[in-house]
Amino acid sequence: MAAPALYQDIADELREQVGRLHPGQRLPAEAELRKAHGASRFTIRSALQELEREGLIFSAQGRGWFVRDQRPVIWHASAPETNIRTDISPADAWSRGIRAQGREPKEEIVVETVAGLPWIRELLRLEPGEHMVVRRRRRYVDGMFSHTDDTAWAEPVVRGTAIALPGDVLPGTYAVMKALGMPWVDPPETTIHARPPTRREADLFGLGHGVAMYEVHRVRRTAEGRPVAVSVKIMPGDRNVIIFK
Predict the structure, then answer these.
(1) Torsion angle of the four alpha carbons 108, 173, 133, 123, in this order, in degrees rounded to the nearest 10
(2) What is the set of domains in the chain, with CATH numbers?
(3) I need a labelling partner for 206 at 20 to 30 A (CA). Which of 32, 53, 59, 71 fits?
(4) pTM over 0.85
């Protein structure tokens, strides 16, 4: 293994260098860094990976290491979630807000049918033996992992709809629920908890020391108060700002 003091010293120097560069600028090549520091390839790579875990730099295959855009993204949590776009994906309120900031959203979606957590089952008023459909999304901004967003729906309600199928739903889940006679009222009921990351979350997001997590619970209800969807978002505090207005 690399000598901890050496690779950490190199990481400290690189961290200062990154602070003087602009997003997208290239760091010196690894060969240059090895020569400048008299260090092995493994030691240099360990220092670079330390900065990558902190979200300061990223690697491009065959091109080297570059400074990452460290501006946190703004999520306007009160924005209406209705959507009429079918020409772009993703096209939900969060993604539209990211594009409005001049940045690029991306998401990966996995759809599962599961028994689910008891507190979500209770909110969705599921009977014993009934399941929920969970749309699990990993979301990225300019290629950087931003947050996870898992939304649960009562399976008997969304059975046979686009919500229960893989992939993005266009023009959106609100349109599906409206067609079913269960449109929800904006904005959803929202609760935010700040807490330390779990070890799995720290590894998943590549978090530096001292970064707090936002755990956001959102319940979408009809005008009559019936819950139709429950979301849990896990958002690192160093790359997300939440605004209500």
Answers:
(1) 120
(2) 4-67 (1.10.10.10), 73-243 (3.40.1410.10)
(3) 32
(4) no
